[in-house]
Amino acid sequence: MKKFDVIIIGGGHNGLVASSYLSKKGKKVLVIEKNENVGGLAEYAESLNCISPIIKKELGINVNNINHSNNIISLEDNQNHTILSDKNGKLSFVQTNADENDQKKFLSIINNYKLFSKTLGAFMFQKPPRVKSGKRADLFQLISMGWKIRKLGKKNMRELLRVIGLNIADDLEDNLNNNNLMGLLSHEAVLGTNLGPRSPGSILTLLYKQAINDNIFNLNKIEVAEYINQLEDCCNKNTVEIIKSSEVKKILTQNNSVTGVQLTNGEGFESKYVMSNADPKTTYLNLLGAEILDTDFIRRTKNFRNKGNVAKLELALENEININNIDKKMNGKFIYAPGIKYIEHAFNANKYNKYSENPCLEFYVNQKTLSANVYYVPYLINTNHQENEIIERCVSVLSKFIPDMKIVKQKLITPNKMEEKFNIAGGHWHHGDLEIDQLLMMRPFYGSAQYSTPINGLYLCGAGTHPGGGLTGINGLNAAKKVIEDLK
Ligand SMILES: Cc1cc2nc3c(=O)[nH]c(=O)nc-3n(C[C@H](O)[C@H](O)[C@H](O)COP(=O)(O)OP(=O)(O)OC[C@H]3O[C@@H](n4cnc5c(N)ncnc54)[C@H](O)[C@@H]3O)c2cc1C
Q1: Which of 56, 173, 197, 228 is within CB 3.0–4.6 Å of 39 for a Cys-Cys bond?
Q2: Is the CB of 463 under 6 A from ligand 1?
């Protein structure tokens, strides 16, 4: 069997980041990717503010924005759309029917959230501390976390502690009157989560995403494929061996320690260190096998919440796409989530594993093509999605704003399809919910945080670890650092 210092299961962007760091340290690394291309879920991503600056610098990643017009366009049925412009994180209204008081309050809420998310942001790039480890470094990190919150000052600290468990609907309804503005912020809070605007913790998810993205609206549209190409080039430059179209069937172990992996075609590779870019449930229950894990750990793995509910819709139209009442030259992110009630109704269907009659949409337009994130389209067990019905519902929403839609091509990628293609249990775009009990030192769950696992030599490096999903690469970086530390 061919032998490597480290084997990485999966060539998602986190797997690529981890392998680049390890090979830069002189380790002989093998990446095994199920699909014919690396990049994983990044295939569906459009925008990102959030590639870690450390990774950009240390791996020499340089990806340009596709357009420089950072607008958020929140669509209204009466065609009086709200347009916000974002200049380096500074938001201003270009057009809205909200009164001046609401506009001011909206910007002030965002500034408050920004302040809180900056405090959380300080923890995003680090490996989360281990409570009760008895190590000074962990204790120091915990104290510094508490100190950063205390440094907000009495008033702001109290406000942060007040809102952290609240639902976003309550906070917005206490402060605003305009439905569209409330819908817009609620959308950012709940997209990609299993929460509605009235679910407790929906402010925390907004703060958390803002902390990761360093921005409330994840706006910068970049050539994601170019980002992945550059990561792959970096692996190649550092002589990482990448095998594509090959699936790992089993992580091999002996006496509670990793010994290698076996592929579905029977081929095997040897290593004392294996990192999994697959999600936690797939890693533990399918690749490792429950038989070598203890009962309590298996219970925690099974309880990890990972029901995906975002689908990707791709449409090609016969003619160039024009949106009613929007200047042709206007670029940006379009959102249709016109109020708290609308989103909450869409969420209600999701609770019962039904897709929303009236879905919420976030989309980008490029001449004749449109690509949208659709929610809520829940992951389904034992039944199939009626894809045409979902597409019809989306088109019915879109045709309120795009006159005379002549569709020449349509494609819907449901969470079930994402699971099938990338082996992501539940088809969740963060590999698991970002909620208070699945964050920081509790991500994915107790006994499996800080990138290590109960099996010697087995590590997690995907979106199921801290700080969660998105294209930061931080999970890969932190996990690689942990392996490098342990290799010493
Ligand atoms: C519709 C959609 C839109 C999104 N939009 C954005 C966005 O605009 N901005 C943003 O920042 N994020 C976005 N995301 C989220 C982001 O894409 C993911 O969180 C991120 O890509 C996760 O990266 P990862 O490397 O941790 O895991 P993944 O991308 O899931 O990679 C895991 C890899 O492991 C491989 N694998 C799994 N099991 C095996 C096995 N047994 N053998 C071999 N290979 C295996 C898979 O094929 C996959 O390539 C979006 C996600 C979706 C679904």
Answers
A1: 228
A2: yes
